[in-house]
Amino acid sequence: MFWRFNVVTIISILLFANQPVCCQLSEGVSVVLHQTNITRLTARALHAAGYHLHIIEHLSIMGAPKLEHVVVEDLIRMPRLKSFFITQAPLLHRVAPLPALPELRTFMITTSGLLEVPNLSHVHDSRKANTSLSYLQAIDLEGNHIKTIPSHALRVRADQVSLNYNLIEEVPKHAFKNAQISKLSFKGNTKLKRLDEHAFAGNLLLRQLDLSNTAITSLPTKGLEKLQILRIERTPSLKYIPSIYEFQQLEKAYLTHHFHCCAFKFPEIHNPARHKLYETQMAMMMQRCASIQKSQARKRRSLEPIRPVTDGAQTVTALEDDDASTMTASEEYENFEEYFSDSGSYEDGDQGEFHDIVNDTVVSISADCGNFNTRNRNVECTPASDALNPCEDVMGWSWLRASVWVVVAAAVVGNVAVLLVLLTNHTELTVPRFLMCNLAFSDLCTGLYLLMLAVVDLRSYGEFFNYAYNWQYGVGCKIAGFLSVFSGQLSVITLTIVTLERWFAITYAIYLERRISLSTAAKIMLGGWLFSSLMAGLPLLGVSDYSSTSICLPVESKDIGVVIYQGSLFLTNALAWVTIVVCYVQIYRSLGGGGENYGGRRAAAAAERRIANKMALLIGTDLLCWAPVAFFGVTALAGVPLVDVSHGKVLLVFFYPLNACANPFLYAILTKQYRRDFITLVARTGQCNWLVEKYKLSTTPPPTAHTNPSTPAQLMPLVDQKNHSQISKEFSDFKA
Description:
Elements: H1 7-15, E1 23-24, E2 29-34, E3 40-41, H2 43-48, E4 56-62, E5 69-70, E6 83-87, E7 106-110, E8 138-140, E9 157-162, E10 170-171, E11 180-185, E12 194-195, E13 208-210, E14 229-231, E15 252-254, H3 258-265, H4 267-270, H5 272-303, H6 312-337, E16 347-348, E17 352-353, E18 364-366, E19 373-375, E20 380-382, H7 398-424, H8 431-459, H9 468-472, H10 475-507, H11 518-537, H12 560-591, H13 602-637, H14 645-655, H15 658-669, H16 672-685, H17 689-699, H18 722-730
Helix pairs in contact: 5-6, 7-8, 7-15, 7-16, 8-10, 8-11, 8-15, 10-11, 10-12, 12-13, 13-14, 13-15, 16-17
InterPro entries: GPCR_Rhodpsn, GPCR_Rhodpsn_7TM, Gphrmn_rcpt_fam, Leu-rich_rpt, LRR_dom_sf
Transmembrane segments: 399-423, 435-456, 490-512, 524-543, 563-585, 616-638, 650-670
Main location: membrane
């Protein structure tokens, strides 16, 4: 924020907080009316209270719930009035145009009921000749209900003007024409959506502008050529930032979006047409400088035969002529340079400088007309770009871009193949197949999420910041973020149910009534779908935000609610993985006895251990993909990040989705059961009969003395123990 209360006013408030006071000072009188019941502020009311109007310098009214009117004509009777301050006057809706008050330096009406800006254009009108220009140090109208800015109401010479936290909806054309305002703030006007193209035109002195926490969609540039500091924070509605060439003196910018800072960093990509115009102007300046240099060289050559005369006066005259000719040549360059330079600062000899002297060129120019050189000006801009909010492209590295396309291809093709085969054999739908369908769908969603990122990266390669707003605040990013969170949660929940189902099948092999039925599995998965949809939908309802990063993940922790949401995601995954680990420890223990459990048949026990080992491998691959993201995510939430943003992006975009392309192959495509279902599907189509025959030959064992060659072999060998055959049947979908 640009300013707070005037120092003199604050001192007055501290000294005279409880009652009307008249304190005689060498400079005059300070008056404070605290919690007064006056309805009209008039000279008679002040005089009746014992104040001498002609010596009042500071007038403050704090807490006037019944004040409705200010008789501004009576202020003329206070020729020494320097500060005028009213606060907490909810019934004060309008103030008539102020008369000439040449000594007034501070005008503040805050937290009151003003509906429009008072007309202050005549405050420093003076009929005296040869008087120095006066200016207001501060105009503060913060916290009112101002909706409009009347024409010429702020045609003033002021250092600071605050219209913060009002109800302004529009800044009209030429609202500040012929004004000389150094610092202007509209912060907190949440209804401010439109700035006219000429809203700031005619303001000859604007150096700082604050449009934070508004709803503007565009920023005009007329009148902002001399701007030094620009603040547009917490304003996500601003889509486009003008070119840096429109802000000839900009030094600092505090913006909302990372990609807007990229516009200042890469002006040639942000606005190629404007950059080309700038280069053309630079070329013209270089040509003009070269012509000046040639002119000076010819002049020196023409003076070489001339010898200096003995008369000192004549020698001086010759040098003066030479200087004059050089100046004449420079005037041509000076006329062109006006495009880039400041027209001058407004200064008052009696009151000091009205504003600080600034560097008044678009570029630092060293024009020695033999060594012309331009250096692009660097603007200090926040928030700066990073790996999650890049300037040039989404992926950032070529290897990451190529790897993502490989993962996308494997995830989409693999999971579509699994769903196609399993769903077409719906007559043989079992609990493991049902769970595999859910897992394949969740992994397919992850593949689609990565596909959307890869396409955006390919389309915006080299200039992502020009596409960033449409992508991050469009429907596409919201869909991508939803798919990512939804698939991540559903995948973990499905793997947990798969593990529990395996644990039940092995632990209670002889108790058929304790198995998870298909209807029970469907109910559990319905709860998983609802929970995953809820967690993925919360960012769409304002809890966290998918639009905060280019990869559309809710990774920024802005407030406690977002931290709780992100912590809930990590906690859910952590509980799921703990459950999975505990279940597999129990599975290993139950299969560890081998010969003892199966009457000495160690081969059968070894087969079941191989199945458990395979399942542990499947879960372990998912754990290896998820654990780094979880670990570094938790440390970041705890305020102790162990990896930088660049490495964190690699974890999120590459390692975390790896299981989406691995799961369909490890869980289905590489198993015997999937190959049998696939051949069955092909046989139904009547195509590729050679493939069906080849599969039959590969699965038919060679004839022996104990077998009948004409009898088809069993696809799944049986074990003579009843318990073991029951367990093997439960694992038939996962054997390789």
